[in-house]
């Protein structure tokens, strides 16, 4: 089968490899489409903490079941599916509590002998496979996993319909967090970014207001004024840039909550005085758990929100190298880039 490899930092190739041999508890999926995620870019740049080149890349997937292992009972050939790509291992807190995202030794595609999803076939344990409703296309199905990140963020933020919400960063995760927040009934949502085209997508996906913060030293004031309601109840950080934590605190009302969704590298300074004296909160947020994934499927299946507007490109797997380049360099007005295996 054909598979997309990150060979080394910023080097993508397509190779012929053997179709993975199916274990008794596994489902063999004919991949229809995979997605390029921000964490895939971290691997591509050689920055990912545990997914290291050379590796078959990818963890977002939608496809059709073509074979099932001898002990599989929940799926059959022909089922349309996606995958929750994480397994808690050992006796870590995540395994014991059922919060897989707490597991110190999580297994994910591209680790050990579990190949990534950017290949013609992808084998997954049955327990990680999720059936797609007939109303959900493969292109929508591949968005279940990243939308689950946004759903978990909304859960960690304890989002309420009357909240005033700011989302800092209009990349795919920021935009899908927007969808998750809207699904909670929130009306007042401001999205910030430095790219006009990303902000236009945010507007199309339902943001109340958008603000380009590039070269705008007054953007925090502008954000507070944009809804004529002052400071925000909840702020979601979906871009891990320097200074953004304190920016978030400056946007927040007393007693409000910041949720850190983005992947950070290095240290961030925190205005501890503002945090303490105003009883503001900063909450960590890491991936998702099964209820988040199930809710993501429900949001997409409802058809009420424009989830698929996050997709900017769909490229054949032979063009995967171009896909990684345009995502990494933010070229061609790229937002969410899909890789097709049809």
From TrEMBL:
Cofactor: Zn(2+)
Keywords, alphabetical: Metal-binding, Oxidoreductase, Zinc
Spans through the membrane: none
UniProt cross-references to Pfam families, sorted A to Z: ADH_N, ADH_zinc_N
SMART domains attached to this UniProt entry: PKS_ER (SM00829)
Top-level lineage group: Bacteria
Entry keyword annotation includes 4Fe-4S: no
Domain Enoyl reductase (ER) span(s) in chain numbering: 7-307
PANTHER family named among the record's database cross-references: SORBITOL DEHYDROGENASE
Entry similarity comment: Belongs to the zinc-containing alcohol dehydrogenase family.
Name this polypeptide is given: Sorbitol dehydrogenase
Organism annotation: Oceanobacillus kimchii
Origin organism lineage: Bacteria, Bacillati, Bacillota, Bacilli, Bacillales
Gene for this chain: gutB
